[in-house]
Amino acid sequence: MSFLSLLARNRLALAGLIVMALVVLLALVTPLLPLADPDVTNTGNRFLKPFSEGALLGTDHLGRDLLSRLLWGTRLSLAVGFAAAVIAAVLGAAVGIIAGYYGGRVDNLIMRGVDMLMAFPYILLALAIVAALGPGLLNALIAVAAVNIPFFARNIRGITVGIAHKEFVDAAKLAGMGDARIIVSEVLPNVIPVIVIAMSTTVGWMILETAGLSFLGLGSQPPQADLGSMLGEARSALITNPHTSVVPGVMILIIVMAINLLGDGVRDALDPRLRSGALTRPMAATTVRRKGPVPEPEGENVLNLRGLETQFHVKDRIYRAVGGVSWGVKPGECLGIIGESGSGKSVTALSVMGLVASPPGMITGGAVHYKGEDLVGAPYERLRSLRGREVAYIFQDPLATLHPLYKVGDQLVEAIRVHHHVSDKEARAKALGLLKDVRIPNAESRLENYPHEMSGGMRQRVGIAMALANDPEVIIADEPTTALDVTVQAQILSLLDTLRREKGLAIVFITHDFGVVAQLCDRVAVMYAGRIVEEGPTQMVLDAPAHPYTRRLIACVPELGEGKRELHAIPGLPPAVNDLPPGCAFAPRCDKATEACRQGEIALEAHGPRKLRCLFPETELEAAQ
Ligand code: ADP
Ligand code: MG
């Protein structure tokens, strides 16, 4: 989506944009308008009221036409404010990028200078600069720009330090690029959005500051009008002839309001995370808006989902990420959940413990029974006491889930002490035991490691150890091996398998790789567009996939030593879950689909131990039980 259409979605920002565009347009065409000369005095016509003849907004204490002065003044104020913003942004960003990129002594020298500037109160510094340079609009501009440079320098330096250590900058250095070129082509494009955002939020301030200096008589000099000096001159007639101060005052208000609204909108439109609500603080547990009856638990499953529906409500669109999913796991059992990226696996997993971010997520139907207790809509305190203690998660990227600044030992101790009141010593002993459980060599010394000192496989072992910290009954592993290489993946899988047998754990293993499912899982559920399309014992599904989607997923897995075979990617893309087709969601990509597939709901039906949601199965099915 383009930047403008994103901006337009925010109504206030759009209003700001329109108002600002009008004001700027007005300022641009001012010289062409048939206005009275703004500086010609006519004391005979002092203080004419607005709507007088020949003076639409009235006149000031010297009989000058206020409308004309307002438009010329706005033109000047805008020009000075924007110029100051651009100068401050360019110089501040340059200083910040150089300090952040080179680091070390250069950084120290520059930033201490910046700190010195920042040590003075803002407006005092501006006054001091104008006092030294002498009053005048140009000097006011210089002063306003100068006092804002530290703000930009600090912000941009912070961003640059982060970018200067990124891999793509290292790659550019290895490719033999010079510093100047790296700064221009690698660093700059990454800081420009930040510069634009900082500018859009400070332009309003700078216009106000320039107006402030002019108000004090240090900016524009008579007879030249800018908004600040107009206010200053009207001060003495504030009570007797309020219109002389209201006119420039309202204009300042309009401009600054419009710029600030626009600035907020620009920031949101440039930052996709803000838009999706990721940086708004989610609630402690997913919102529940459940209509319809609550299903009963079934069988001897420890964890049992029935008809679970989770949606994301973003503006007026509804994403049905999980559309009625049912599955269960017994103690000691491993259930695989497989499907392409975006099929709703993670959202299903997170819904179990109410971990889907709300807003925009909400659970709109179904039930999640843990040992017979419905967790959907359970009080937050109850969920919290179960999270990690009874149902634990392992995520894909352990580097992102481990805190970079704490030693892994301390993080394990913390995980243990969330749920158990034990002494530090006991917790430490337990942490050591956990690291040994997950087969980390030299466990004692590893406790003292920071996450970045470990390899990917080691880190994921720590992730598993944390999940095991409170002896949970169920572990939900969301693509835990996707970021690892094949040998490490095999080690992690066999580790999980052993742990499951030793501790009788129920494991829900999410993956997009049928090879992994074959190694580890007793049963597998295939998800497509938020629903299960086929479920059954792993071997049965692997040997004879019944759903065309399952067959094609399996056909994507290469096998060693099977000779030459073409690997077929599945053509097309999964459907967007805010706009699902009626009938089978896979029909548009399926080579067997007929009209019947595109009409009406297709049920998930049991055929022996297998369940299937398809009208034209790929294989002979057992009779329904
Ligand atoms: P995966 O199967 O790859 O784990 P997910 O469960 O993460 O897929 O996502 C399922 C669907 O949910 C995606 O197609 C996406 O459209 C939708 N979704 C996930 N998070 C959000 C969100 N914050 N806002 C809107 N839609 C979302
Ligand atoms: Mg996922």
UniProtKB/TrEMBL annotation:
Domain ABC transporter: 305-554
Topological type in the membrane: Peripheral membrane protein; Multi-pass membrane protein
Main location, first listed in the record: membrane
Entry GO MF terms: ATP binding; ATP hydrolysis activity
UniProt cross-references to SMART domains, sorted A to Z: AAA
GO CC, one annotated term: plasma membrane
Compartment annotation: Cell inner membrane; Cell membrane
UniProt keyword ATP-binding present: yes
Record-level GO BP terms: peptide transport; transmembrane transport
Family named by the database record: Belongs to the binding-protein-dependent transport system permease family.
PANTHER family named in the record: DIPEPTIDE TRANSPORT ATP-BINDING PROTEIN DPPD, OLIGOPEPTIDE TRANSPORT ATP-BINDING PROTEIN APPD
NCBIfam families in the record: oligo_HPY
Name of this protein: Peptide/nickel transport system permease protein
Taxonomic source organism: Salipiger abyssi
Organism classification: Bacteria, Pseudomonadati, Pseudomonadota, Alphaproteobacteria, Rhodobacterales
